[in-house]
């Protein structure tokens, strides 16, 4: 059975800290790995990764995929209170998106 | 990107009743999905809504409980039937953009509370 596991489940840091969120997967028919941020109801798209070793970057957020070791990380540098959210990792394969458990990130001012 | 309108935004329902959630997309899309997010949990796929044919349900979800319609490429409905408190969740409509392997866009979600 396909599965996506995220760690840690929750994380509390101070504003300005750098955080690394982890996502490991065991899936068949892998096509892409995606990261989402969920603050209220609807998740918002952050990154889509398809190739190993190529970093995607958007401002203070960056992500990379390792298809050999089957994991991805999401880095957030110089965290701000607005980064507080649940971060979801998901893989696209078998014509559907399967989500991980999520990491709840809390930034303390 | 796709703009997805979902309604109702929230509702409080009585046990044993049914509620239909609507999802309208501003462009034609091939693949449309319905997810459920129970309190404190991640997103779980209920089914893929197929235009012109029956929906494809995931393990643990059945058509009698969650009937889905997909009359055209821009619209779908999900009905939660014979509701119980365990059905209290956020229900999310989503569409695939950019072809297979592309990102998924989500509607704003419908927060359902069953008393």
Query: Mean pLDDT score of chain B, rounded?
Result: 92
Uncertain segments of chain A are none
SSE order of chain A, as H and E? EEEEEEEEEEE
Percent helix of chain A, as a range, is under 10%
Largest beta sheet of chain A, briefly?
6 strands, mixed
Looking at the structure, the CATH topology of chain B is Immunoglobulin-like
Seen as an oligomer or otherwise, the chain set is: heterodimer
Would you identify the CATH H-level superfamily of chain A? Immunoglobulins
SSE topology string of chain B: EEEEEEEEEEE
What structural class should be given to the helix and strand makeup of chain B?
mainly beta
Tell me the number of strands of chain A. Answer: 11
Straight-line distance between termini of chain A:
41 Å
Which strand-content bin applies to the residues of chain A? over 45%
The third-level CATH topology of chain A is: Immunoglobulin-like
Q: Would you give an account of this structure?
A:
The complex is a heterodimer of chains A (109) and B (115). Chain A is mostly beta strands and 109 residues long. Chain A has one domain (3-108): Immunoglobulins (Immunoglobulin-like), CATH 2.60.40.10. Helix content of chain A is 0%, strand content 61%. Chain A contains no helices and eleven strands. In chain A, strands 2, 4, 5, 9, 10 and 11 form a six-stranded mixed β-sheet that branches. Chain A has a five-stranded antiparallel β-sheet with strand order 1-3-8-7-6, with no helix packed on it. In chain A, a hairpin with a 4-residue loop joins strand 7 (61-66) and strand 8 (71-76). With 115 residues, chain B is mainly β. Chain B has a single domain (4-114), classed as Sandwich (Immunoglobulin-like). In chain B, 0% of the residues lie in helices and 49% in strands. In chain B, strands 2, 4, 5, 6, 9, 10 and 11 form a seven-stranded mixed β-sheet that branches. A four-stranded antiparallel β-sheet of chain B has the order 1-3-8-7, with no helix packed on it. Chain B is globular and about 40 Å long. The mean pLDDT of chain B is 92. Classes of the chains: A mainly beta (109), B mainly beta (115). Chain A binds chain B through residues 31-32, 34, 41-45, 48, 50, 88, 90, 92, 95-102, and chain B through 31, 33, 42-45, 48, 90, 92, 94, 100-109, 111.
